[in-house]
Amino acid sequence: MNKPKVLIVEDEPSIAELIAVNLRHNGFAPTWAEDGVAAQRELDAVLPDVILLDWMLPGQSGLALARKWRAEPRSKSVPILMLTARGDEPDKVAGLDAGADDYITKPFSTQEMLARIRAVLRRRAPEQASDTVAIGELALDSATHRVSWKGQPLKVGPTEFKLLNFLMAHPERVHSRSQLLDKVWGDHVFIEERTVDVHVKRLREALGMAGAMIETVRGAGYRITAQA
Ligand code: CA
């Protein structure tokens, strides 16, 4: 098996080196870019399996880079883990809104970093059956990762796709946030329940008119319904 490629975008050499050494020791193939320009060069050359993206960078911020890479077809499905020194919840949510899959708050342990990288890789792995599920006019093909509504293709991010896939496989049932973290994220030890709300919001937006099919059930969680 090929070693998962991790692109580290971090302007502080000592931190980047420490991360790279730990990744190498644990079976990953890290590359390092010190800013957005260097990172773009790396990305154009070899598409990584995961991007570790520092929030505070000279030039383009990590947030701006996450937004840019999410918008580009080539890089849009590469998981992004934001590295942030800030503890503020609004910043973390801003990172997730910009398209990051998760965030790690500095200082973090090697074990925490590895757990989060493995979690995003697992989420991305195509473990689902190659099947199309449809609810009303909404269709999802887990083999081709395509979502459509009334035959029109919809753009859905990788985490939102997994969330939708799970909801559609269990329609009309209410799932609590912790159940969704467990089933969709797989390894939710480090993820807050608020993360679910952020991704549900993004999923609804991505689904457009069909977004109303994802219902919030007060005090209970979320469900997908054909009756919206
Ligand atoms: Ca920095």
Overall description:
The protein is an alpha/beta fold. It folds into two domains: 118 residues, Rossmann fold; 93 residues, Arc Repressor Mutant, subunit A, CATH 1.10.10. Helices cover 40% and strands 21% of the residues. It has eight helices and eleven strands. The strands form three sheets. Strands 2-1-3-4-5 form a five-stranded parallel beta sheet, sandwiched between helices. Strands 6-7-8-9 form a four-stranded antiparallel beta sheet, covered by helices on one side. Strands 10-11 form a two-stranded antiparallel sheet. Helix 1 links the parallel strand 1 and strand 2. Helix 6 packs across helix 7 and helix 6 packs across helix 8. The radius of gyration is 18 Å and the shape is globular. The mean pLDDT is 88. Calcium ion binds next to loops.
For the record, the count of structural domains works out to: 2
Roughly how much helix do the residues carry, as a percent range? 40-55%
The dominant shape is globular
Compute the CA-based radius of gyration.
18 Å
Sheet with the most strands, sense and barrel status:
5 strands, parallel
What is the CATH level 1 assignment of the largest domain? Answer: Alpha Beta
Kindly estimate the percentage of residues that lie in beta strands according to DSSP: 15-25%
* Number of extended strands: 11
Termini, distance in Å?
44 Å
Might you state the CATH topology name of the largest domain? Answer: Rossmann fold
Give the mean pLDDT: 88
Which cofactors or ions or other ligands sit in this model? Answer: calcium ion
- Helix-strand string: EHEHEHEHEHEEEEHHHEE
